[in-house]
What does this fold into?
Amino acid sequence: MQVVLLTPQQKQEIQGKRFAKDSYFNPIQDNNGNWIISIEEQTQNINPDFDWLSNCPLIEYEPVPPPPFHGE
It folds into this structure.
């Protein structure tokens, strides 16, 4: 699955900002420490302040592994 790669500065700029009605950017970090958003956040953006997102590169998503389970 591909995701949109952000710089730390870009992440700060969009964090919690609205990209569509009742929808807000929610950047996360992948397993390599990259700040990313979903392609849906990029393509559904109607906020002209963030039109630059369409120029951000796509990378393969590498999820952070869940912590080990220490069940009984």
User: Anything to note?
Assistant: The radius of gyration is 14 Å. The chain has a mean pLDDT of 95. Residues 16 and 25 are 5 Å apart (CA to CA).
